[in-house]
Amino acid sequence: MSRHGERSAARTPERALDEALATAVRRTGASGGGVYVLDEHERALCLVVTGGLPAEYAEPWTRIALAAPDPVADAVRENRLVWIGGLEDLARCYPRAAAALPYRFCMAAAPLPGRGARRGALLLLWPAAHAPYMDACERARMTHAAHRMGGLLQAADGPPVIPDRPRLVDVHGQGEQGSQAVAGFAERLPGGSLALDTEGRITLVTSGAARLLGGDAAQLLGRPPWRALPWLDEPSYADKYRTALLSQEPTFFHALRPPATWLDFYFFPGPDGTSVRIVETALADRPPVVPVPIRPPTVGGHVGVSRMYQLMHLSAALTEAVGVRDVVDLVAAEVLPVFGAQGLVLSVADAGRLRITGHRGYRPEAVERLDGLPLDTALTPAGQVIARGVPSFITDPDDMARSYPQAPRISGKQAWAFLPLIVSGRPVGCCVLSYDRPHAFTADERAVLTSLAGLIAQAMDRACLYDAKHQLAHSLQQALLPRSLPRIAGLDVAACYLPASQGMDIGGDFYDVIRLDRHTVAAVIGDVQGHSTAAAALMGQVRTAVHAHATAGAGPDQVLARTNRVLTDLGPDLLVSCLSAHLDLTGRRVTLASAGHLPPLMRRPDGHTAPLTIEPGPLLGIHAGAQYPLTTVPLPLNTLLALYTDGLVEVPGQETDDTTAALAGHLSRTGAADLDQLIDDLVHQTWPQGRHTDDIAVLLLHTVDTPACDAVNAARRPE
Asked: Phi then psi for 253, rounded to 5 degrees?
């Protein structure tokens, strides 16, 4: 094979991607970066290559859930370049990430174009001195680099391989370190000097530095200072180095070398490494000496600031979990990858038994056998750790057999971490992380997992309470709204109630459709002030009163007037808006009265759509003698009436008239063949992200010319 052929064969897709990252970092002037690819099965973005930063700094972000509120995930989901101009930007837009990265730097994430598992993102970091905006040249170069990487992924023979740990590349082309001239220059300076590469490893140590640090130069080279010297293995010292490296700004700190020698460390970071000056602290600047025991290095891992910020990141993520399903998904997406586990079982204590609420990496038959185990059993690891309140770490099947000889062997897993979920001395449940191979848990992992168990317990307790309230609210709301809509010849009807996206999932919006006789129908929609059980209870009273008066033969004006008198007698603190309509399907007309409610939209047979002009009366519950004027308009065949509450059209930052006009335009262009789909379209028109701030009720009434619509209308139950 020719030399050219050998070079081509050696340039694997992985190496090509590594080279593309290094080129992107150098051409954009970034200090570091990484490339993420999509794991489509897990719906997560995985870091496959990084450079410019120590690998341990990227640990909390080696795997990012595609649905997470994160710059990288947003770039892929929304197919746009995301720019973060500093710590304030990060805290405002992504508070979870800011809690774990409280440093001054800029960053950008750009999507890699592609399909399926060949999608991903390019992430680049800049020092704090960078302008808070991205100039056109940087944007163009980053976009070009992302397109190039996307092309490499598309051209590969198969989907990209996701390594257990991201590959590390030299993005700055450092070359050989520590030439004789540089070493001689540093040796002649007073005090001591170190040179660190971008991974934090010592590449140059002068004799003065070795003397001040109390170590041998040969033992220091190739290792980070905090790994080589146990007395430097403190979070406060490591945090200073992280600050220098991420912000690319000089930093300084005092450190005590046992037993009583104070040293000053000056860090001067650059794109290809960090220069460190070490001098003895001046006598006047020395802090008081507090004896500090020398801790031996942790076997199999080290306790440092990376784990601390990792725990902060997971804590911030757990605070965003709302329901039990959110907690399960978050633990699976954030915790499993960090600790290299392949299995998860989350259980809650319920009526003396452990009920599995979520799992990953287990066969259904295994989950079925594990579900419902007694809470007080001492025969199983889960029961014992809950009884004792202390985690249990099982390194292999032999360890399991020794510790729990009567525990059943069900899953085929090889190592386990059983974490009791305890809140205020009360068992909430149990979290089990499991491994497909034997796993020796380091002291660092045990400490972090033990702390994490408390955070998961708090999150699970809140989530169980939320789900219980949510279910109660949903049941109450469903009981107060119509169980089904009547089948009416000549009229197609559909309705929907959507609770506010935040809160108790309960509110005061209501609707009803009442068959008065074969050819006359009453329709009503209303909104009780507030989002609470009190609002829902009042809504039930109003709907009952409206229904009773309408079926007794009262017209729309009298329905509102009589209901108003009922409310004023009850004296509630809440006000109610309401719209009452009587549809005469034989005479082809509709008569309406309004108690301060929004007018309905009417789409005429020719497609013209506009709000009806209705003279409103006062809100219900204000004045017992209030009058409600009537409005009568023609109702020809193929006319669509859209009744709705203010939650549909009151959008923050937009005028209600503009939102209503947009809805009218949408209705004028849309057919009425599927009213349920039309309701979804109307909601999406004003709330495309689905995060509506108020509850929404929509009622659609469409006049048709044949009774064949009965089949379409058959007993719809509103969503």
From this structure: -160, 155
Residue 283: Cβ-neighbour burial (10 angstroms; 0-12, 13-18, 19+): exposed
CB burial string 218-250: b at 16+ within 10 A, e below: eebeeebbbbbbbbbbbbebbbbbbbbbbbbbe
Residue located via tokens 């020395």: 286
Reported as a single tens digit per residue, the pLDDT across 699-709 is 999 999 854 44
Q: How far is CA 70 from the centre of its chain?
A: 8
Query: How much is the CA Rg of the chain, to the nearest whole Å?
Result: 33
Q: For the ranges 406-410, 427-431, 449-453, 511-515, which has the lowest average pLDDT?
A: 406-410
Q: Which residues pair with 346 in a beta bridge?
A: 358, 431
- Specify whether the CB–CB gap between 393 and 443 falls below 8 A: no
Quote the pLDDT of residue 709: 42
End-to-end CA distance of the chain: 68
| Tally of residues, the chain | 719
Q: Give the DSSP per-residue string, 94-124.
A: -HHHHHH--S-EEEEEEEEP-SGGG-EEEEE
Tens digits of per-residue pLDDT, 367-379?
888 888 777 666 6
Residue 282, helix vs strand vs coil: coil
The residue ranking higher by pLDDT, 135 or 530, is 135
Cα 138 from Cα 144, distance rounded (Å) = 10
Say what the pLDDT of residue 4 is: 42
Pull the structure tokens for residue 690: 């689905």
Question: Could you give the CA distance from residue 103 to residue 94 in angstroms, rounded to a whole number?
Answer: 14
pLDDT in tens, 228-246: 888 887 777 777 887 787 7
For 328, phi and psi rounded to 5 degrees?
A: -60, -50
Instruction: Tell me the pLDDT band of 299, cut-offs 50, 70 and 90.
Output: very low
* Cα distance between residue 98 and residue 246, in whole Å: 13
Q: What is the dihedral of CA 640, 644, 648, 649, to 10 degrees?
A: 80
Dihedrals phi, psi of 335, to nearest 5 degrees: -90, -45
Q: Phi/psi class of residue 412: alpha, beta or left (left: φ > 0; alpha: ψ in -120 to 50)?
A: left
What tokens does 384 get?
A: 């014992």
Q: Tell me if 275 sits within 8 A of 268, measured CB to CB.
A: yes
**Is pLDDT at 644 greater than 90 in this prediction?**
yes
Question: Helix or strand or coil: residue 617?
Answer: strand
pTM of the predicted protein model: 0.55
551-584 residue pLDDT tens? 988 999 999 999 999 888 877 777 889 999 999 9
Alpha helices in 172-271 (DSSP H): 180-188, 207-213, 217-220, 225-228, 235-247
The answer to whether 592 and 556 are in contact (CB under 8 A) is: yes
Least confident of 160-174, 271-285, 493-507: 493-507
Beta-carbon contacts of residue 468 (< 8 Å; ≥ 6 apart): none
- Residue 291: pLDDT band with limits 50, 70, 90: very low
Q: How far is CA 316 from CA 8, 28, 229, 319, in A?
A: 46, 31, 32, 5
Distances from the Cα of 259 to the Cα of 17, 255, 256, 292, angstroms: 49, 11, 8, 8
d(CA 261, CA 114): 57
- The one-letter amino acid at 520: T
Residue 654, φ and ψ in degrees, nearest 5 = -125, 145
What six digits make up the tokens of 537?
Answer: 């209870």
